[in-house]
Amino acid sequence: MSIERVRRLLRQRESICLEFKEAKAELPETIFETICAMLNRDGGDILLGVADDGVVKGVNPTKVETLKTNLVNLSNNPQKLDPPFILFPLLHEIDGKTIIHIQVPASSQVHKTGNTVYDRSSEGDFRLTQPHRIAELFNRKKVHYTECAIYPALRFEDFKQELFPKIRNLIRSNNYNHPWLTLNDEQMLQKAGLRRHDTETGKEGYTLAAALLLGKDEVIKSILPHYKIDALVRRVNTDRYDDRDYIDTNLIDAYDRLMDFTVKHLPDKFYMEGDQRVSLRAKIFREVVANLIVHREYTNALAATFIIYKDRVETGNANNPHGEGPISPDNFAPFSKNPLISKFFTQLGWVDELGSGVLNVNKYLPVYASGKRPQFIEGSSFKMIIPLDEKMITKFTVSDGTVSDRVSDRVSDRVNKGVNEGIIESMSADVKSKLLKLVFAVMNKPLQKADELATGLNVSVPTVNRYIKILRLLEVIEFEGPSKAGGYVLSAQFTREIEI
């Protein structure tokens, strides 16, 4: 969350979606009542270390990490928050004082703390004790959040088992001390809210969100026959398409395939952010792709689309709108359409905090596309329009083919040269193919480590380390940054060769 937005929050008064709490050395007694109430209503922001009138008091610097750790652990503890909803508070320095920002999304479930249900109004948090009021809350969630629909006949065996090692590696690379890593696969799904018990109907089982995230293709098709994401390129043949990827698989693999599609058809600009070189294409389109997947209304038969034109990328997906019209990064209120799916993607490191997509695309796109600005339009179909720099696209699709063709050619040239000069040994066509996939994986998401690359390519870590060694000898990739925080990127020389 940007410091600018936190400063804007401090200039506002407390409301149904904003709460200030002083917290010098310990968590306020009512903190989980507020978290529970916001989860049950429309979400919101909590700022610890701030008085009721918005004056920054600060948190004791020696207690900050303890309070932050306690918030994470307690939000994952069903004795404190039931069902658990793991939160990740952020630290900010304001006028030399530290405050803790907790962004609480709206949840698709009904939560309790101290065995009591809380709701939220403009007056603050209040207990729900009357059965009909609690039933109304359950009904509102059920109607608005279809991802929570329970399928009692859905079994653990219906999930794609090879996804679990990939998920664990992604979680570990994002947070090596994540509490889910101590659980077995079925326990992890329980903690993620993907298996639930409906106290009103008595139904128990895995949810629609679980099926979409992890289901085998035939299982997803049996539940949602209409589900698909249509990725198209319409630069020459605007009536039909120049290239297409018809995606009807689980959301984990769908994310990877859409990111691969952007690598194949969109150019990149590497630039320095501080002392780190980053991929602008990855920065922008990981947000666009995640937004397309996470905020879709999956029970609607309208297909999601991701279309690349000469001058723009347009996406569209069925939406359960929370407002109408264009979204401004200066004053929008982020609202999660599928909190369970969004939370799962957050643990994988594919989604940052709620609302980060709008902010990050607005931040990086003007650098990527010569000052142009994106459009996010809320409605029954949620649309994103991401302008492109036509000169850059023209250069990208010159006579020697798309960037994927040029990368293939350059990698092949370097392999042949390396063999001829005795730098590397000759290799099979299959190994050459694996090397190329590794190069694309690094292009798609720079700064991955060997274990992440191994998971994405479905090979062992020793195997991927062998491929990495070859590509480093050929000066195609290099390791950038410190050993713990850095990862692999394309070498500067190779980047210049393929003109991206």
What would you note in describing this structure?
The structure is a single chain. The protein folds into 3 domains: 1-144, Methyltransferase, Cobalt-precorrin-4 Transmethylase, Domain 2, CATH 3.30.950.30; 225-394, 2-Layer Sandwich (Heat Shock Protein 90); 398-498, Winged helix-like DNA-binding domain superfamily/Winged helix DNA-binding domain (Arc Repressor Mutant, subunit A, Orthogonal Bundle). It has 18 helices and 21 strands. Helix 2 links the parallel strand 1 (18-21) and strand 2 (44-48). The radius of gyration is 24 Å and the shape is globular. It is of the alpha+beta class and 500 residues long. The strands form 6 sheets. The chain has a 7-stranded mixed β-sheet with strand order 12-11-15-16-19-18-17, covered by helices on one side. 40% of the residues lie in helices and 19% in strands. Helix 9 packs antiparallel against helix 10, helix 10 packs antiparallel against helix 12 and helix 14 packs across helix 15.
